[in-house]
Structure to design on (135 residues):
């Protein structure tokens, strides 16, 4: 049995827009919301913090948890965590070196309030500085 693949348009380097100007929504009828939140925490983030944060983030965003948060630590890169929601999920990354820093990447197929996420994250990690970008 042979498998026939559909014709695919290959993405070339010049079709990836750095500023998003050339981006075209290929499925406007499907809700997709993304938010990246980054900051400087005032304490060392542990495995338990990540699991607790992601569980509470589910409440803040009103998402249904499918799989409880999982984490992994790398000697080279620090902690990573992930939670699976019925409507997608979130990734969390934390570094102790070269500086104390975290990055949260949320992708959902259900709308949520980004301001609530930023406020919650700022308070949870008692950040000295926090930034966010939605798209």
């Amino acid at each position: 049995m042979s498998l026939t693949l559909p014709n695919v348009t290959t993405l070339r380097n010049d079709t990836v827009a750095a500023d998003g100007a050339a981006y075209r929504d290929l499925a406007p009828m499907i809700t997709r919301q993304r938010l990246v939140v980054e900051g400087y925490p005032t304490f060392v983030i542990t495995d338990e913090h990540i699991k607790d944060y992601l569980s509470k983030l589910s409440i803040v965003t009103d998402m249904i948890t499918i799989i409880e948060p999982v984490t992994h630590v790398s000697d080279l890169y620090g902690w990573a965590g992930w939670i699976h929601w019925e409507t997608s999920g979130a990734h969390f990354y934390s570094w102790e070196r070269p500086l104390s820093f975290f990055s949260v990447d949320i992708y959902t197929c259900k709308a949520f309030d980004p301001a609530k996420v930023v406020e919650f994250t700022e308070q949870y990690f008692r950040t000295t500085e926090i930034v966010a970008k939605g798209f």
Notes: The chain is about 20% helix and 35% strand. The beta strands are 33-40, 65-74, 78-85, 88-95, 101-108, 129-134. The chain has a mean pLDDT of 90. Helices lie at 47-61, 114-124.
